[in-house]
Design goal:
The chain is mainly β. It is 8% helix and 27% strand. It is built from five helices and 24 strands. A hairpin with a 4-residue loop joins strand 16 and strand 17. The radius of gyration is 46 Å and the shape is elongated.
Length: 432
């Protein structure tokens, strides 16, 4: 097997070894650039959660962010952001233009009575401005300003300052994280990756390593079970590791296998286990948890399923705690092989032929007696045989009429035209 990714130019001095899984790339920055892939640092830089506010030193919000300008966004475009802002179909971003941000008090007691996201108007702390002057006489006043010594007077200081109260500052753009995904500039260049891996060598036919599998490897590996698990003379509890595997029992003891618990193992729809019986007695299949078993022509049941000797059953998880059963072990309940093995019963065959049998009612001494078949032949009845099973060999039976659902018969004394009464006869019927 070649150690190279395809045919390399002669100038390529450091070929990549398949088994190193790209660990021998010497220039990671160049490799990421060629592939258009993000580094772990790039991913971390884009990992701020939705709703994060940043001060951006630019006039246009960076990728993944929106300016906090009080605008309304829709759920169709920004679902995660709308949910974060408490909306359903839409929500408005805060308008932080010209605003200072203040840390939430959160119980400290510096800025009491605030809730997160609450806006607050400007305010001056209470304070006094003093006035300095001199009194000319007991009846005089402040130099240059008449006063009333016996009354109360209020003076305003001269105004000073501008139109607002502010510290020294730099204007920045407040932005909020709006996207869940990183920048499109970090998306993987699939074409470059495919070209890089185009010459990946195919592993040997039965390779069991973690080497990447080519389509050629898959084609020549054939069907393979994930595991082979034998057991005998005991019970075996199914586990998640049995999925895709082959379970077989053997020996003369009755074995019981419990299928993996679908809910407990979070099994996906389509999970399958094959159970085969190489022994001389049946294998009992149980389920775990609240699972049920179902096969063709049967309802879902928590009852155990028998795998007869020399047969197998595929147990396929179809969801809703239900395992479907397919295979030779359930042919007896399939449409082609279904049977009722009672005194009056029937057996269906894959060809469509149906065999029926049973006992008639008592014969009449005056007329034919009608016998209803165990099931109606879907198409037609081809043959009816009736015979008396009593002690007298001088009795014979005749069939009058026959249909897909029933027939008539009479019992007779041999050599005579006399009907017999009270005879219960055996019958067999063939149809399709």
């Amino acid at each position: 097997m070649s150690d190279y990714f395809g045919t390399q130019p002669t100038s390529y001095q450091t070929p990549l070894l398949v088994q190193n899984n790209f660990s021998d790339i010497t220039n990671l920055t160049l490799a990421r650039s060629n592939l258009g892939a993000a580094s772990s640092d790039d991913v971390l830089k884009a990992a701020n959660p939705i709703g994060t506010i940043i001060a951006y030193y630019g006039s246009v919000a960076p990728y993944g962010y929106l300016p906090c300008s009080g605008q309304t966004v829709s759920n169709a475009t920004f679902p995660s952001l709308v949910t974060f802002l408490g909306g359903t179909t839409s929500a408005a971003l805060p308008d932080l233009r010209g605003e200072f941000l203040r840390g939430w008090d959160n119980g400290r007691g510096v800025d009491t009575g605030r809730v997160i996201k609450a806006w607050q108007a400007d305010m001056f702390a209470s304070h006094n401005h003093g006035i300095t002057g001199s009194v000319a006489s007991a009846t005089g006043g402040v130099s240059g300003n008449p006063v009333n010594p016996t009354g109360v007077n209020t003076w305003l200081t001269n105004s000073t300052g501008g139109t607002e109260t502010r510290p020294r500052n730099v204007a920045v753009l407040y932005c909020m994280k709006a996207y869940d995904t990183p920048s499109s500039t970090y998306s993987l260049n699939v074409t470059n990756l495919v070209n890089e891996l185009a010459g990946l060598a195919t592993a040997p036919q039965f390779d069991n390593s973690t080497t990447r599998a080519t389509t050629a490897f898959v084609k020549r590996s054939g069907q393979q079970y994930s595991s082979i698990t034998p057991f005998t003379g005991s019970t075996l509890a199914g586990v998640a590791g049995h999925i895709g595997g082959f379970i077989y029992g053997y020996g003369a003891s009755v074995n019981t296998y419990s299928l993996p618990d679908s809910a407990g193992n979070s099994l996906p729809v389509g999970a399958c286990v094959r159970v085969a019986n190489f022994g001389t007695t049946g294998i009992s299949i149980a389920r775990q948890g609240s699972d049920v078993l179902q096969s063709s022509n049967t309802t879902a049941s928590a009852a155990n399923q028998n795998v007869p000797p020399g047969t197998y059953i595929d147990f396929i998880y179809v969801g809703s705690l239900t395992w479907f059963m397919m295979g030779t072990g359930v042919l007896s309940v399939s449409s082609d092989f279904y049977s009722v093995l009672s005194t009056n019963g029937y057996q269906k065959l894959p060809s469509g032929l149906i065999l029926q049998w049973g006992l008639t009612g008592q014969s009449s001494g005056s007329a034919d007696v009608t016998v209803t078949l165990p099931i109606i032949f879907p198409n037609a009845c081809r043959s009816i045989n009736v015979f008396e099973g009593g002690s007298s060999a001088s009795v014979f039976c005749t069939v009058g009429t026959a249909s897909a659902a029933s027939f008539t018969f009479s019992a007779w004394n041999s050599g005579a035209s006399t009907r017999r009464a009270g005879d219960i006869c055996y019958f067999s019927a063939i149809g399709y």
